Amino acid sequence: MRLEELKGLGKARVEALNKAGVHTLQDLLLMLPSSYQDTTVSTPIAQLVPGEVCCVEGYVINSPKLARFKGRSSVTVRIRDDSVPRGSLNVVFFNQPWVPNQIHENDQVVFYGRVDRDKAGKTRMYCPARVTERGIVPVYRAVSAIPGKTMRDIIRQGLEQLESCCPETLPRDVRLRYGLCERNFALRQAHFPETKENLSIALRRIAFEEALFYQTASLLLRGERTNGVKMQFAQDTPDAFWNSLPFAPTGAQRRVLVDIAEDLTKDAAMGRIVQGDVGCGKTAVAFGAMYCACKSGYQSALMAPTEILARQHLESARKMLEPLGIRCGLLLSGMKTKERREALESIRTGSWQVVIGTHALLSEGVEYADLGLVITDEQHRFGVHQRKMLSNKGKQTPNALVMSATPIPRTLALVLYGDLDISVIDQLPPGRTPVTTRVVPEEKRQGLYGFIRDEAKKGRQTYIVCPMVHENENLDVKSAQETYAELSMGALADLRLGLTYGEQPADEKEETLKKFSAGDMDVLVATTVIEVGVNVPSATVMVIENAERFGLSQLHQLRGRVGRGAEKSWCFLLAQPNERLKTLCETGDGFVIARKDLELRGPGDFLGKRQHGDSMMPGLAMGGDSKLLEESSRCLRELQQKGMEEAWDEVKRNARAAFARVMDEIAMN
C-alpha cells in the first residue's frame, strides 16, 4: 500500500511526510511517538511537583475568569480535589477566550499538562489538554499540515498492513534469550499501548534492536576503514612533548596520548574520540597529537564550534607549540580579503603546520599542503557529515580525532560512537578550583543578586543562563531577553550587563563574548549558547534559571564555565530542590553525573546531542537504560561466536538496512 491510499492523506500531506523523511508505509510505522500522554492515573493536587507532566482531576469551584491585555487574553479555571490537605489549583489558558463557554462551575474535569510555578512561587498548570477519554495517547513529532489526531488516524490505518510491510528483524534465538517480544507486537503497542506494561515491553524490544543494530553497523564501519596517513616518529615523541611544557600531565593524559600515537603509526586511518570532564586537559592532549603529526612532516587542522573558542585554541597553541618550532595560524569566515588570502597561502604551502578555525576550514578554496590529522572539538556541535568533509581535504584519508567534553557512560558511548575507538581522560589536573553548587528557591532571589553585586566589586564576573530566548506566554519560564531587560533596569542596574543567544547575529554574538572575556562586562545573560568553550578565568558565578528544565549533564557543562581561575566559584540553581539537582550539589564528577542522568532520564538526553538525535533511535531514547545497553553489547559479542553464523549474518544484513543512511555519512572514507 502506498501512502496516498491512506484515508486523510492528500497530496499536500504526503509531500509534508516526504519532507519529514517518510516515503513508504514502513517509514510511517517506524516513526514512533515522541512521547505519550498517560491519563490512566491522576496525581492528587496536593502532591503536584513543579516541572513534572501529569494528569489532574477535580471539580471547578468558581466560574472561569477571562482577562484581556494588550490584544491577548487569559482564562483562569480553579479546580479542587479531595487530596489532603484539600488541594486546589489554578489552571490558566492563554489566548483561548472560548474556554468559559466550555467549562463551567461544578464541572468535573481532567487536565493533562506540565505543572509550573508562577512569578509568586505558586503552583499552576498552563494551557493543558482537556482529557475526555482515559488512556495512553501517543504524541508524534510535529509534521507540517498534519494535526496530531490525523497522524494517529493514518497510523492506525497503516497498522492494518503491518504484517506485509514490517517483517521480523531479530533471530528467534536472540528474542528468546533476551526475553524480547515479536516486532509486530512491539510496533502495535508502541503506537497504541493497551497498558503501561505492554508499552514497556514494546519499547524494550525496539530499543534493544536499535542498540544492537547500531553497534553492528558501527562494527562493520570500523572494519571498512581504508588505509590513511601512516606516520613515523620516535617512540619517545609523546614524552618529549610533555617534557617541553611548564606543567606535569596527569597519568590519564599520558595514557591517552600514547593511544593516539600508536594509532597514528598504523596503516588504517585513526578514528578516535577522547572523552573527558570539563577541565581535564583534552586540549593539551590534542596539541600533543599535533606535535606527533608535525614530527612526521604532516599538517594538522583543528575545527572549533565558535570563533572565540578558535581564537582561544590559537592562543594556547602558540604558547605550547611555537616554542617547539611549529607555526600555527587561524582561518575564520569573517576575515578581511587580504588576511584570508595570506592565510590560504600559508595553508597551501605548508608554512602553517597547524591550522585552527571554524567551519571556514571546510570552505571551497582551502587547500592543505599535506593534511595528516583532523581534530574536531565538541563533536555534538558538528555533524558527522562535516567531519567527513574536513577529512576529504587531505590527499590521503587523514587521521581523525574527536574531543568531547560531555562525559558519557562507557556503555552508551559504545553505542553512540561505535565507529570510533574511545579514550577517557578520567583525572583532573591539580589546582582546578572546585565549584560549590547550591539550589536557590525563589524567595532567596534578591539575596543572590546582592551576592552578584558583591562579586562584581571584587572584579569577578557572573553568567546568568535562561532556558529560552524570548518570553513565552504559555510557559512561566525565564527568557534571556526578559531577564536582561528586568535586571538592566532593576536589581543589577548599577552593573555592566550583556546579552547573548543562539539566534543573535554572529558578529554581535562574537563582540559580546569578546567583551565579557576581556572583563568589560560584569554579568552576561545568555541561553545555553555559552555551554561550549567560553574560557573566562575571572567568571566565578554561574546562575541557572529554571534549572529543573535542564538535564543533569547539561547543567554540569554550564557549571564548567566557572571555576577556571584561582578564585572561589559558585553555581546557583534557581529551582525547587529535587533528587536530580541534589546529585549536582553533591559531586563534581561528570561521569557520576552522567550515570545518574542515564538512570533518571534514559539515553534520550545524550542522543539529542548527536546530529541525528532521537529520530535516529527513538526507541532507545524512550525505552533504553544502562542494563539494556550492556545486554545488547553482550548479544553482539555472542553473535560473533562459533555456531552463530546464520543469526550473525541475519543481524548484519538487517543492521545495514536499518542504518544505511547513517553508515554512508559516518564512513571514515
Structural class: alpha/beta
Determine the fraction of residues in helical runs and give it as a percent range.
Answer: 25-40%
> What's the total helix number?
27
- Please report the distance between the alpha carbons of the first and last residues: 37 Å
**What is the arithmetic mean of pLDDT?**
85
Strand order, biggest sheet? 12-13-11-14-15-10-16
Total number of beta strands: 22
Low-confidence stretches: 608-615
Biggest β-sheet description: 7 strands, parallel
Alpha carbon gyration radius: 27 Å
- Portion of residues in beta strands equals 15-25%
**General form:** globular
Tell me about this structure.
It is a single chain. The chain has 27 helices and 22 strands. A 7-stranded parallel sheet has the order 12-13-11-14-15-10-16, sandwiched between helices. Helix 7 crosses helix 8 (196-223). The two termini are 37 Å apart. The model is unreliable at 608-615 (pLDDT under 50).
Index terms:
single chain, 669 residues, alpha/beta, 6-stranded parallel sheet, 27 helices, 22 strands
Layout of strands and helices, then pairs:
Layout: H1 11-19, H2 25-29, E1 35-38, E2 53-60, E3 65-69, E4 72-80, E5 88-94, H3 99-102, E6 108-117, E7 123-126, E8 129-130, E9 136-139, H4 148-158, H5 162-165, H6 172-177, H7 183-191, H8 196-223, H9 237-243, H10 251-264, E10 271-276, H11 282-295, E11 299-303, H12 307-320, E12 328-331, H13 337-349, E13 354-357, E14 371-377, H14 384-391, E15 399-404, H15 410-416, E16 421-425, E17 435-440, H16 445-457, E18 461-465, H17 480-489, E19 497-500, H18 506-517, E20 523-526, E21 539-544, H19 552-559, E22 569-574, H20 579-586, H21 590-601, H22 604-607, H23 613-616, H24 618-623, H25 626-639, H26 645-658, H27 660-666
Parallel strand pairs: 5-7, 10-15, 10-16, 11-13, 11-14, 12-13, 14-15, 17-22, 18-20, 18-21, 19-20, 21-22
Antiparallel strand pairs: 1-9, 2-4, 2-6, 3-4, 4-5, 6-7, 6-8
Helix pairs in contact: 7-8, 8-25, 8-26, 9-11, 10-11, 15-25, 19-21
